[in-house]
Write a structure and sequence with these properties.
The complex is a heterodimer of chains A (about 850) and B (about 120). Chain A has about 850 residues and is mostly helical. Chain A contains 24 helices and four strands. Chain A has helices at about 10-20, 40-65, 75-110, 120-140, 165-195, 210-240, 255-285, 295-305, 325-335, 335-355, 360-380, 385-390, 395-425, 430-455, 475-500, 540-545, 550-555, 590-605, 610-630, 660-690, 705-730, 735-760, 770-800, 810-840; strands at about 570, 580-585, 640-645, 650. In chain A, α7 (about 255-285) packs parallel to α10 (about 335-355). Chain A is globular. Chain B is mainly α and about 120 residues long. Helices cover about 70% and strands about 0% of the residues of chain B. Chain B contains five helices and no strands. Chain B has helices at about 5-10, 15-20, 20-45, 50-75, 90-120. Chain B is elongated, with a radius of gyration of 19 Å. The N and C termini of chain B lie far apart (about 65 Å). The chains are: A mainly alpha (about 850), B mainly alpha (about 120). Chains A and B meet through α8 and α9 of A and α3 and α5 of B.
């Protein structure tokens, strides 16, 4: 008799057959697109984002051709506006952010030894949303209706429909749709890092890539929602003529700039940190040693994340804000250089202390650091307000931001491409082509962007489609244009290298001899992710743990089998990664794709003012989401628990704050609350901008009575739900159902009571920013009451259908999380609109 | 063993305590910005060295120093041998405490950075 079950080769073969069958991808021309496995979805995601990068790169080349010589007429001013707007928007929204999400969807489960991320269908939904929104926004340029207001879309030129066409709506609604996929990815990645680590991988053993991704995903939760709030106000002004940004009617264009840059500056770090995270993986591999200063990297990532939210006004130095305000942001902008420098020094020191292997990925990494540092130094310069006033809106800033983004995002991604290509395809890329491409890009980037520092200081403004010969900037511009084509040649060499990959032979397993978990991947990879989920005792288990690879391969660790024919992975605790439960993952399904199509319909149809069709699409989205939840979540398992090996038995159902679903709700609601705080900021911002706000003549609305009624019924919804959860957990199902019914009644009443205040006092939202913002807050809050009613009805239906019992109560626990945030929203909204006019 | 641990050693260290120092910075920053923006917009002037601002800054710095001091004590918890990279309870504690200490340092400097403008700029122009 063998010492260990897994010594039996026949048993192992049987386990592998079962795993293979469970993880088998759907086949067929159409069905294959219903796949949700992170290996597939991640690759689609990466390729799509790469395609958008090439597209935006071509737009840049057209711009550089136009600017190559003075007084050129290759494209007209209108087309040029579309080119630079789309170049910036696509690079940021359709390349940099989605690329990080895509790379993480591929890498994170591998790094964490998980079979997949906790919500595979959510990843698929995010991908399809991204694809539809991206094609919609990018395609607009072929119909000459692309957005043309700059990637920041400053009102009032963009909100006045007589001055800007459909492009502004396409930008606003198309990219709002993509922001949905970013928030979806943030939920997926945070829960993945916190709850799906392998047993033993305590926080101090987590791969640094996971640390960075955790930090960046949290940043998305606080950065993207203010932009969503801004988008809401912006479209209300464009479609309904509510004057949030119209100074003549009490609005203020600066409100948009605040909301945009509260998003826009953290955005820079959202695209920078995940790229630099790739260094944290490849530097130790090629230095042949553990990374030095692990806590210092955590300091850098967390510190940068916080400070990056104190920088937004440095994009607004020239808007006439009080200098004391500018100085606060200038100070924070200088402070952020500290953590940024720390991580660069950590990489340098690790290389210094190691035995360096000069590989192609490392060449990209070191080259990009050189470029990034130049961009960082000019960043310290423009963070000084008086210097910024000189350089503002000149090519100096164009040079700065491209040095930062090429050195901090683009080239690290190419380093990651060369490093991780064998992980994805089993084949190495060509070192010769890779190095050729590197030198072309490195030389090209400097030739293109260094002269822009000079042309900017000599007076070349941004976003002009041409310039007169007398300015004397022809030579510098020609150099930039030549440089841009050298970069393009480098990228073309990389594309060529990728295209030749299918004809190359497979590389050996773990070709770089790395020590981290993702390199368990086999060249002829199976779809199950990892053969068995290991026990982690080191940051570099392949280097440090004895017989690690063999033990994983022979299924000697946890969950080596799929006895019940279900896709599964292990959930562990946040701090110490102790096994908590086994969760069943969603398999291939049409639902994510159809939901994305339906939701896309809402945004796209609204763009063309087909409101009824958009409403139908919205109802369809709701129906699909409910179907998705009903069939795919909080399923009661056929048995309470299952063994995962080594004598450990884990439950198959968990609820409350140990469960991934609870965390997903909590994280989503954090994003929701942040968007709401953007709207509340708008209210108080108007108050600071006006002598009398609310204006005397309008101060009667919405009164005190109806907001207080709405507050009371809103809180009643919350209390009813909390009460229902408690009595339900104690086994009193009937009383719980009654309380849920009461909650439904209260939340429906909340919708009417919330709207009654502004409606009955006759507030005209087109007249002034005050009634407009009051209406907006009321509509936002009542919409949330409406959603609360739907959620409670869903819970009631689950209970009646026997899908929710006192032992299996994930549904009501998750809905209660929503209600906590609803109570907060209701309280802030109605205390603000009801009582603030009394004290202002 | 068996002796009673000091109060600061008994505090539980989590991801939430890790972000205490930078959260204090964020609170101080928001407070500074809102206070300056509202007093400039509503009063049209900006008093130099007002008590409120000084007290707020001192409280922020004190909180950061306190959380840094606790982290300093905790990251010296005796246990496994250096380099403290093991997958053990003690090394996980030491790691989180060390990171908190580093963040306290960064946050302290950043709060000072935010306070400096008030020293040098005394009005709303």
């Amino acid at each position: 008799m063998s010492l260990h079950d897994q010594d039996d080769a026949a048993l192992r073969a049987a386990q592998e057959d079962r795993l293979r069958k469970v993880w088998e991808p759907p086949k067929g021309l159409f069905l294959r697109w219903t796949d949700t496995n992170n290996n597939r979805v991640g690759v689609w995601y990466v390729l799509t984002a790469f395609g958008f990068m090439l597209f935006a790169g071509v737009l840049a080349l057209i711009m550089r051709m136009q600017l190559a010589v003075p007084d050129n007429d290759l494209v007209d001013a209108g087309t040029f506006n579309q080119l630079f707007t789309l170049h910036g928007s696509v690079m940021m929204f359709l390349f940099a952010v989605p690329m990080f999400e895509a790379v993480s969807i591929i890498l994170l489960p591998q790094l964490l030894g998980a079979r997949d991320l906790p919500f595979p269908r959510l990843s698929a939904f995010g991908y399809w949303s991204f694809l539809i929104g991206g094609v919609f926004v990018s395609g607009s340029i072929f119909f000459d209706v692309a957005p043309d207001g700059g990637w920041f879309m400053y009102p009032p030129l963009t909100t006045r429909t007589d001055l800007s066409g459909l492009g502004a709506d396409i930008w606003m609604l198309g990219l709002s749709f993509i922001e949905v996929s970013s928030v979806a990815a943030a939920v997926e990645l945070i829960v993945g890092v916190l709850k799906c680590r392998p047993p033993g991988m305590r926080l101090n053993l987590m791969p640094l890539y996971a640390w960075y991704i955790l930090v960046v995903a949290v940043m998305i939760l606080f950065a993207f929602p203010p932009l969503i709030a801004g988008d809401v106000l912006f479209e209300m002004e464009r479609l309904l003529d509510w004057p949030f940004f119209d100074a003549q009617r009490g609005g203020d264009p600066l409100l948009w700039q605040h909301l945009f840059w509260i998003f826009g500056h953290p955005e820079v770090y959202i695209v920078f940190l995940p790229s630099i995270a790739l260094f944290a993986m490849l530097v130790p591999t090629f230095a042949r040693r553990h990374l030095l200063g692990y806590p210092w990297i955590v300091l850098a990532a967390v510190g940068t994340a916080f400070l990056s939210f104190g920088l937004w006004v440095h994009h607004m130095f020239a808007t006439g804000l009080p200098k004391i305000s500018l100085a606060f942001f200038s100070a924070a902008s200088e402070a952020v250089a500290i953590p940024t420098a720390v991580q660069i020094f950590v990489f340098i020191v690790t290389l210094w202390a190691g035995r360096v292997v000069w590989s192609t990925p490392l060449l990209y990494a070191t080259g990009s650091l050189a470029i990034f540092v130049i961009g960082g130094l000019t960043g310290v310069m423009v963070a000084v307000a008086p210097f910024d006033w000189q350089a503002h809106d000149t090519y100096f800033v164009v040079a700065h931001l491209h040095y930062v983004l090429i050195g901090g995002t683009l080239m690290p991604l190419f380093a990651g491409l060369y490093y991780y290509w064998p992980l994805i395809t089993g084949k190495k890329l060509s070192d010769r082509l890779g190095r050729t491409a590197f030198w072309l890009i490195f030389v090209g980037a400097n030739l293109c962007f260094f002269p822009m520092h000079l042309s900017g200081l000599e007076g070349m403004p941004r976003r002009v489609f041409t310039y007169p010969e007398e300015l004397g900037l022809g030579g510098l511009n020609l150099a930039s244009t030549i440089g841009s084509f050298v970069i393009a040649a480098g990228v073309a060499v990389i594309v060529l290298d990728l295209c030749r990959s299918p004809w190359r032979t497979k590389a050996p397993r773990n070709p770089w001899a790395a020590g981290t978990l993702e390199w368990l991947a086999h060249p002829d990879d199976e779809d199950w992710g990892i053969r068995s989920i290991p026990l982690i005792e080191s940051r570099y288990p392949i280097w440090d743990q004895e017989d690690f690879v063999r033990k994983v391969d022979e299924g000697r660790y946890f969950l080596p089998d799929a006895e019940e024919g279900r896709r599964e992975t292990i959930v562990t605790s946040v701090l110490d990664a102790r096994p908590v439960s086994v969760i069943r993952l969603g398999g291939p399904s049409w639902l994510p794709m159809l939901t994305a199509v339906a939701l896309g319909g809402v945004f796209i149809l609204t763009t063309y003012h087909f409101y009824w069709a958009a409403l139908v699409s919205g109802v369809l989205t709701l129906a699909l989401v409910l179907a998705w939840l009903w069939t795919g979540t909080a399923e009661i398992p056929e048995k309470p628990g299952k063994p995962i090996g080594h004598g450990i038995e884990l439950p198959l159902y968990i609820s409350g704050d140990a469960a991934p679903g609870w965390w997903a709700m909590f994280i989503t609601m954090m994003a929701d609350a942040t968007a709401f705080s953007g709207l509340v900021f708008g209210y108080y911002f108007f108050w600071t901008r006006h002598e009398d706000f609310p204006p005397m003549a309008m101060a009667d609305g919405p009164g005190v009575f109806w907001p207080m009624v709405a507050l009371a019924v809103g809180l009643a919804t919350w209390l009813a739900t909390v009460g229902a959860r408690e009595v339900h957990a104690r086994g009193n199902v009937s009383l719980a159902r009654v309380l849920v019914l009461l909650g439904i009644g209260a939340s429906v009443a909340g919708v009417f009571a919330g709207l009654a205040g502004p409606w009955l006092s006759g507030m005209d939202p087109q007249a002034h920013s005050y009634p407009a913002i009051v209406w907006t807050l009321a509509i936002w809050t009542t919409a949330h009451c409406g959603v609360a009613a739907i959620m409670l009805a869903y819970v009631l239906a689950r209970s009646l259908a026997g899908k929710m019992t006192p032992q299996h109560d994930a549904d009501i626990r998750n809905v209660t999380v929503y209600m906590h945030f609803l109570a907060l929203t209701v309280a802030v909204t109605y205390l603000t609109i009801g009582l603030f006019p009394e004290v202002a | 063993m068996g002796e009673r641990r000091k109060w600061h050693e008994r505090l539980k260290v989590t991801l939430w305590t890790l972000i205490v120092p930078p959260t204090v910075w964020a609170g101080h920053f928001l407070f500074s910005y809102l206070w300056a923006a509202i007093s400039c917009a509503k009063d049209g002037r900006f008093a130099k060295f007002p008590v409120l601002f000084t007290v707020g800054t001192v409280i922020a710095l004190a909180l950061i120093v306190l959380s840094g001091w606790i982290a300093w004590k905790q990251q010296r918890t005796v246990g496994d041998p250096p380099p403290h990279e093991q997958g053990t309870e003690v090394d996980r504690l030491r790691f989180l405490a060390k990171s908190t200490l580093l963040l306290a340092g960064l946050s302290f400097v950043s709060v000072l950075f935010s306070a400096l403008p008030v020293v040098f700029i005394g009005d709303c122009r």
